[in-house]
Target: Biotin carboxyl carrier protein of acetyl-CoA carboxylase
Amino acid sequence: MTEKKHEQDVAFIKALAELLRENDLTEVQVKRDYGEDDSLNVRVSRMTAPAPVAAAPVAAAPAAAAPAPASAPVAAAAEASEDPASHPGAVTSPMVGTVYMQPEPGAPSFISVGAQIGEGDTLLIVEAMKTMNHIPAPRAGKIKRILVEDGAAVEFGTPLVIIE
Model:
């Protein structure tokens, strides 16, 4: 009887892992109660790196717009390989949610690469639980890179923008 329950638990854990992969989740935790003193606690998680993948198309656009000196490709490659979260001007997401780059569909974006912003200006919106959270600029400066795309899902600590 315990062997049958063990086989069911293994199948259940495999189903959770499949659910994680199919829905692009990073973690799922479930508790199954079998009786008063019998339960199963399962936490399935995986590590992802969404920011570098999203950063590649945005970082490539400015380089294609203008011809660069011979040393620029080396500098651009080194910059692309560094972790955006470790950059001193990185603004990270304070919550899990969906990013919106403009206040409403069809409206102009809050920011663009190269734009000058002031401290407290809205950089973007992160929607969490049907609440639109305006993410303010922590300081004045120039937008160097936008690391997320409109409609992208972000997690706590995901780098959003780099301000210089």
